[in-house]
Structures are given as C-alpha cells and as structure tokens.
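Q: What structure does this chain adopt?
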Amino acid sequence: MIDDYAKTQALIERMKVGLPIPIRATADLARASKQFPTKIVVGQELAIKSVLYMGDEGGIMCDVTPPGMSTTPVICSLTHLEVLPGHPLTDDLRAYQAARTRKLARQGSGGTMSYTIKPKKGRR
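A:
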C-alpha cells in the first residue's frame, strides 16, 4: 500500500478548505502539457483549484487548469507539482509528496511520468 488512506483523506479535506493552493509547474507537468492548446512552462505559477483521490494507483490528483483553458482541464498528480512556501499546508503537502515518491520508487514505479515513443513505419 502506497498511501495511508485515513491520513490521505484527512489531508484532502484540509486541502479543500485551503483552496486555492499556489504551486509551480514542474518539468513533468510542462512535458505533459504539450498536448494542450495552452502550454504550461516549468516554473509557471498556477493554483490547485480542486482535488480528488484516485486511490493508491493515482494518489491525490489536482485541477491546476490555467486561466483561459476552461474547455480542457489540466489534472495532474500532486507529486508533479512544486508546492510554494507560505501556504499553511506546505509542509504537509511536501511530506505527502516525499513519502509517495519514495514508496513508488521502492516498488519500481519511479514516481515520475514516462513515455514510450514508437517510430512510425516508413513507406518503402
């Protein structure tokens, strides 16, 4: 088990009360955003607008949709966000990120997004 369910649910409830939560985009989020019309860049300041729990498989997911992208929401794992200092939950969020990333690494999941690129077959 990656997450302690009771602790994670308690953190989510505290997050909901503390919304919006300021964050910065990481390289993982910026790389994943290439599929959207509005690109997100590393270090871009955004805010967590809502949260949901996707179980042990997905962990805490966050809506960080930038202004102007109302038709295509951007949902990503809390572990792919840089939590900014100054918010009352900063320490708790960083502790969750560190613990989840560490546990994923132990299971061999790595804790980061990865992509498999298959070349298209060429015409001959």
